[in-house]
């Protein structure tokens, strides 16, 4: 064997061996290559309690934007909740392919106004998203929320399959569950539910609206819906809850469809206590919060007060 | 203009029409932005099915099958009338499947049959090219009796169906898979580069969501076979099987445009045969066949002697060494009659099986606005546009749900997607009126108008959580979109295994109100075989397939009778 050939063949053989060995090592321990820093995700976005402000405010005004401004000012104004440079995620209820008038989805006017307020307060970015029930594109289009939020300067993000992160929600029932990352990888979370009747839970307002941060097979949760709502509400703590009670869906909820089922109330609530917000808002449906399973359970879990007057309540009707 | 320029024009035309056709299919989806304050209904901005309405075979076959030319089908005359004068220009210049076959056939090959003598031999006229005429006559006779089978092999619906339900969804799956694979390396710059490539192609090539289609392997098999056959014989599909090509060939019987051969200058180099697309014998010494020629003009362009010339009113007289061309199609009277008789026999054969009249599949849920089943089978060309546009991925090509007769016609599979009440897109894109375009009022109904119904939901109480397992649920009621809801609840106290009292709400269907949209079945948490399911009974399109003697709808004062369109 000539020296040249010897070198050639040993080089080739070594190269092949290196490829095999490298591949084996590569597939054996992928972590080695994973330089991505672990994701920082939060789930509590609350502001520090402040005795100067009530925990729940309510304003009735036919000018809905004015109602929002008034209720928000009474609870400490947007400056209390959004600091300059922060990223804000707004979670309206965009569950169904319905128009705003049908009162199954949050008022686009209020969502747009909220986006504007956040940006004025110096938010670096405002995201509007929701894990809808009906097809997301249709819901965001027909509800008018995409239009309104984008005009106001927000980024509307439809849930994509890869955007869910499986998290430990630390609940009794909800342990490991996929959550849309925009609701945990942010600085501030603003929950913007609408008040609707629901046959199983009697109402769907703030805490039930948090279902929309979850992916996966949510329909299983109905089997123990009160427990799952409370687990979720103890996991996800929004900075602020803005309840849209400008229109209230009295029957046929949560999807509605008929204008005959809608009551016009022209009311907006702002709250730092989700339970108090729900306790006050169920009154629009003619219900008593003390008889609504998940609200009672939430109080027991120490999430807030059913007797909303006890935590500071201010209304302007 | 030299012949080379004209040939380049033809190449440009092929690319252009291929691109337009694909673009229209890409645009057949819910990728639109509207301002909901000004637009009440979601409509597509482009007439995305217009290409299919230019298809003369669609026009002829639907005209024979149901007696009318629907909407834009008159456009097909734009193809047909020039064909009568100049021949099958459509095949060589316009047809997207023809162009695809052309390109795939011309890729260089190692096979001997694709070079030199082998190719020259295979490009001479062959008897198998007659098959397409028999296929055409067969499906046309079948259409005359009311069963429309042209769509299975008609190149434009075939192409639309194959791209829309096979190529694009498979591309999407491949892209997602590739992206996930590259990202799994865990090397950040590589991952982000892959993501940016993905984000770049996604808006144009990929649907806004991943879709899945029932039975696409059969569609893929046909489409794949057609493409692969090009590697055996140049444009085997166009030459031998295409019923639209056959129709255009028959209509070019009296063409005034054709190939004139000058035998004196010819030195029999056979270059014309080497590049011939239609196998129509362009060489001197054989009879040129008008109905086989795609007018690609390759023969004239490659002829070094200038012996071949396409012109109006070519000299038709032949000489001893150069016989005159043939304008008639090469089919025998007996086989013509046999094909027509076979097609005519197809209808009674299909309908005397256990067809929809006697044994309809209860899961044969047609898209909203579909016409009655016999009319539907006389209109649907299986182009798959409704399946492509459905934003909920609810519509799928059937396999045998509507019998052999209805293979690849649309069916709604609620488990995969339900019919969105506010959506009328499938009716908007249907090129032949098998699915009529509904207004929003006709779709969801109002005080005077009944809604369009596609079936009725039923509970399987043995699988339903509140009915059988003492467990609260009612997701179906939550999802029910009618007002008032078709699903109503009765609260009951039941005992669980230990004898504890459990308060559950048990769901019931009110068949008076249910529209069969399938939202309940879609949402049911019993995932494998849902505890609530939709069957076709009660569908608006059929006066017979009804459950109730009369409908008592609390939201509508007058009695509602199932209507016939």
Total helical elements of chain B: 24
- The topology string of helices and strands of chain A comes to HEHHEHEHHEEEEEEHHEEHHE
Overall CATH class of the largest domain in chain A: Alpha Beta
How would you classify the helix and strand content of chain B by structural class? Answer: mainly alpha
CATH topology of the largest domain in chain A: Rossmann fold
Give the strand order of the largest sheet of chain B, numbering strands 1, 2, ... along the chain: 1-2
Give the second-level CATH assignment, the architecture of the largest domain in chain A.
3-Layer(aba) Sandwich
- Describe the main β-sheet of chain B briefly: 2 strands, antiparallel
Instruction: Please give the alpha-carbon distance between the first and last residues of chain A.
Output: 101 Å
Note poorly predicted spans of chain A: 32-39
Radius of gyration of chain B, in angstroms, nearest whole number = 28 Å
Number of DSSP helical runs of chain A: 10
| Rg of chain A, alpha carbons | 24 Å
- Total beta strands of chain B: 8
CATH superfamily of the largest domain in chain A: LarA, N-terminal domain
First-residue to last-residue Cα separation of chain B: 55 Å
Q: Would you kindly provide a written description of the structure presented here, covering whatever features stand out?
A:
The complex is a heterodimer of chains A (317) and B (565). Chain A has 317 residues and is an alpha/beta fold. Helix content of chain A is 32%, strand content 21%. About 3% of the residues of chain A have low confidence. Chain A is built from ten helices and twelve strands. Chain A has two domains: 31 residues; 261 residues, 3-Layer(aba) Sandwich (Rossmann fold). Among the domains of chain B are: 67 residues; 180 residues, no CATH class. In chain B, the strands form four sheets. A two-stranded antiparallel ribbon of chain B has the order 1-2. Chain B has a two-stranded antiparallel ribbon with strand order 3-4. Chain B has a two-stranded antiparallel sheet with strand order 5-8. In chain B, a hairpin with a 5-residue loop joins strand 6 and strand 7. In chain B, helix 9 packs antiparallel against helix 10 and helix 9 packs across helix 11. Chain B is elongated. Classes of the chains: A alpha/beta (317), B mainly alpha (565). At the A-B interface, helix 5 of A face helix 23 of B.
């Amino acid at each position: 064997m000539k020296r040249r050939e010897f070198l050639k063949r040993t080089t080739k053989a070594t190269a092949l061996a290196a490829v095999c060995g490298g591949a084996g090592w590569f597939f054996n321990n992928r972590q080695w290559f994973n330089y991505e820093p672990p994701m920082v995700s939060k789930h509590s976005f609350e502001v520090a309690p402040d005795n100067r402000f009530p925990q729940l405010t309510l304003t009735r005004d036919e000018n809905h934007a004015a109602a929002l401004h008034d209720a928000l000012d009474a609870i400490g104004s947007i400056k209390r909740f959004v600091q300059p440079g922060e990223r804000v995620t707004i979670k309206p209820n965009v569950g169904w392919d319905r128009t705003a008038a049908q009162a199954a989805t949050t008022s686009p006017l209020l969502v747009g106004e909220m986006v504007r307020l956040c940006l004025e307060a110096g938010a670096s970015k405002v995201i509007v998203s929701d894990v809808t029930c009906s097809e997301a594109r249709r819901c965001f289009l027909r509800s008018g929320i995409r239009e309104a939020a984008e005009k106001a300067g927000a980024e509307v993000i439809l849930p994509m399959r890869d955007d869910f992160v499986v998290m430990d929600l630390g609940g009794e029932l909800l342990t490991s569950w996929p959550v849309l990352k925009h609701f945990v990888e942010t600085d501030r979370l603003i929950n913007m539910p609408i008040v609707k009747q629901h046959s199983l839970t009697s109402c769907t307002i703030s805490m039930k609206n948090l279902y929309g941060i979850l992916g996966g097979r949510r329909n299983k949760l109905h089997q123990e819906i009160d427990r799952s709502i409370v687990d979720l509400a103890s996991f996800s703590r929004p900075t602020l809850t803005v309840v849209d009670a400008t229109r209230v869906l009295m029957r046929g909820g949560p999807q509605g469809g008929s204008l005959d089922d809608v009551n016009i109330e022209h009311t907006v609530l702002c709250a730092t206590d989700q339970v108090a917000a729900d306790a006050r808002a169920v009154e629009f449906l003619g219900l008593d919060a003390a008889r609504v399973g998940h609200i009672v359970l939430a109080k027991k879990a120490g999430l807030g007060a059913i007797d909303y007057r006890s935590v500071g309540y201010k209304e302007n009707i | 203009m030299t012949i080379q320029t004209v040939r380049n024009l033809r190449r440009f035309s092929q690319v252009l029409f291929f691109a337009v056709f694909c673009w229209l299919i890409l645009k057949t989806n819910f990728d639109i932005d509207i301002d909901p304050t000004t637009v009440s209904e979601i409509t597509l901005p482009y007439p995305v099915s217009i290409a299919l309405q230019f298809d003369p075979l669609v026009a002829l076959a639907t005209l024979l099958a149901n007696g009318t030319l629907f909407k834009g089908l008159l456009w097909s005359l734009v193809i047909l009338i020039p064909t009568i004068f100049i021949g099958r220009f459509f095949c060589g210049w316009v047809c997207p499947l023809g162009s695809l076959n052309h390109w795939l056939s011309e890729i260089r090959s190692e096979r001997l049959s694709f070079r030199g003598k082998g190719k020259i031999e295979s490009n001479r006229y062959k008897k198998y090219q007659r098959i397409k005429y028999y296929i055409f006559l067969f499906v046309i006779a079948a259409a005359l009796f009311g069963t429309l089978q042209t769509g299975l092999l008609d190149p434009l619906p075939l192409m639309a169906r194959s791209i829309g339900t096979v190529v694009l969804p498979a591309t999407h799956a491949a892209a997602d898979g590739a992206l996930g694979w590259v990202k799994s390396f865990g090397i950040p710059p590589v991952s982000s580069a892959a993501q940016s490539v993905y984000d770049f192609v996604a808006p144009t090539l990929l649907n806004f969501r991943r879709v899945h289609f029932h039975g696409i392997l059969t569609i893929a098999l046909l489409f794949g076979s057609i493409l692969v056959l090009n590697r055996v014989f140049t444009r085997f599909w166009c030459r031998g099987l295409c019923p639209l090509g056959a129709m255009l060939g028959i209509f070019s019987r009296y063409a005034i445009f054709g190939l004139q051969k000058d035998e004196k200058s010819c030195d029999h180099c056979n270059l014309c045969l080497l590049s011939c697309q239609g196998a129509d014998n362009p060489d001197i010494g054989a009879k040129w066949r008008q109905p086989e020629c795609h007018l690609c003009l390759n023969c004239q362009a490659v002829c070094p002697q200038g012996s071949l010339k396409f012109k109006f009113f070519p000299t038709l007289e032949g000489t001893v060494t150069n016989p005159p061309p043939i304008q008639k199609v090469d089919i025998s009277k007996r086989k013509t009659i046999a094909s027509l008789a076979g097609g005519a026999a197809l209808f009674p054969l299909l309908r005397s099986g256990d067809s929809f009249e006697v044994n309809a599949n209860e899961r044969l849920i047609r898209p909203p606005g579909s016409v009655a089943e016999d009319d539907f089978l006389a209109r649907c060309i299986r182009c798959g546009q409704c399946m492509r546009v459905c934003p909920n991925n609810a519509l799928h090509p059937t396999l045998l749900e509507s019998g052999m007769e209805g293979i690849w016609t649309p069916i709604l599979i609620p488990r995969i997607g339900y019919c969105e009440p506010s959506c009328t897109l499938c009716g908007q894109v249907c090129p032949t009126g098998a699915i009529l375009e509904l207004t929003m009022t006709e779709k969801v109904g109002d005080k005077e108008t009944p809604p369009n119904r596609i079936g009725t939901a039923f509970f399987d109480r043995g699988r339903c959580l509140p009915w059988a397992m003492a467990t609260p649920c009612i997701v179906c009621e939550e999802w029910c979109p009618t007002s008032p809801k078709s699903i109503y609840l009765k609260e009951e106290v039941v005992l669980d295994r230990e004898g504890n009292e459990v308060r559950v709400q048990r769901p019931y269907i009110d068949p008076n109100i249910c529209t069969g949209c399938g939202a309940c079945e879609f949402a049911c948490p019993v995932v494998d075989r849902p505890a609530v399911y939709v069957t076709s009974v009660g569908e608006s399109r059929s006066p017979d397939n009804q459950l109730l003697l009369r409908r008592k709808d609390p939201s509508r004062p007058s009695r509602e009778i199932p209507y016939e369109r």
